[in-house]
Amino acid sequence: MLLRKINLLLIFTFFFLGCGEQAEIADISRGAHNIEIITVFSPALEDNQVGDSPYNLVHVLLPPDYQNSGKHYPVIYYLNGFDAPVVAYKLFESGLVEARDKNGNAFIFVSISGLNKYRGSFYANSPVTGKWEDFIVKELVSLIDKRYRTLAKSEARGLAGFSMGGMGALNLGLRHPDVFSVVYSLDPAIFNRELIKEAVADWHAVDSGIIIEAYSAVFSGDGSYPLFDGTVEDERIISQWQEGAGNWDQKIEAYLRNGKPLKALHIACCEQTEHPWIKKGGKHLSDFLNTRNIEHEFSVFDINHVITSDMVSGSMIPFFIAHLSFE
């Protein structure tokens, strides 16, 4: 009798306490052309200390023939830059249609905004700003596979991003090659130990330091940033900051230990005068990848820090066509 009561208590506890909230699509609206705007409820994003909403808008651009084809499609996930709205899909629309018309290669395109209270989440897990990495990797990919006719395997998933999103694409792609197999990072906002000071000075000059505030909320947690005064406390903060845009030697070693390589990786930088440390950071990472014999592509656009439809159509989409699985 006692054992039966214990079993009933365990069942009760599991049912009422163990079944936590699940990520779900809370709303769907139709945009122009083949756009679906989905509102995703995310327990991962709900877990934040700044009062941000757990609901996130995601734009899904479907192939022109999606409704009638019956086909399953590869998916490109795109991470937007700092303070950028989710409407970046407009940069991709013509390129995706062109790829379909020219080669018959059609994709589902998912545009994700990293906007939060600080205008940028850096797509990282943070006790302060929420678990953005978990939102994308553990929740959103599963929801997209359930809602749409995707090729639900890593070989058919690509991850791209620009600036803050380029950094996020590298971090998430290297950590989760079992989820995304092809990564394209455009002008990623990354640095090494020697470039942090240059990045901090640059970020101080942008909108009264709003990027400093956002980055420190994610990676320091208390709003602190490096002063480069040589103190133990400052070294602690620098170490925290390296977790996001730096520490590439450690991240690459962890990637190699994982034993599952990406199918393809492309790092593209801009020949710019606005934020020269970004190109230096991208080149540093490329050079390090070469020392570890990790195949990748590195290219430079003769343009300032920006993403254009020509970049998308001429470089990014052909890269995904060449490396993603279409069956």
What would your notes on this structure say?
The protein has 327 residues and is of the alpha/beta class. It has one domain: Rossmann fold (3-Layer(aba) Sandwich), CATH 3.40.50. It is built from twelve helices and eleven strands. A nine-stranded mixed sheet has the order 1-2-3-5-4-8-9-10-11, with helices on both faces. Helix 11 links the parallel strand 10 (264-270) and strand 11. The protein starts with a helix and ends with a helix.
> Runs with pLDDT <50, length 5+?
1-19
The topology string of helices and strands comes to HEEHEHEHEEEHEHEHHHHEHEH
- Structural class, judged by helices and strands? alpha/beta
- CATH topology: the name is Rossmann fold
Major sheet description: 9 strands, mixed
State the CATH class.
Alpha Beta
Q: What is the CATH-assigned architecture?
A: 3-Layer(aba) Sandwich
The overall pLDDT, averaged over residues, is 90
- Overall number of strands: 11
Report Rg. Answer: 21 Å
For the largest beta sheet, what order do the strands appear in spatially?
1-2-3-5-4-8-9-10-11
Beta-strand content: 15-25%
What proportion of the residues is helical, as a percent range? 40-55%
What is the count of structural domains?
1
| Shape category | globular
Q: How far apart lie the N and C ends?
A: 56 Å
Q: What is the number of helices?
A: 12
CATH superfamily: Alpha/Beta hydrolase fold, catalytic domain
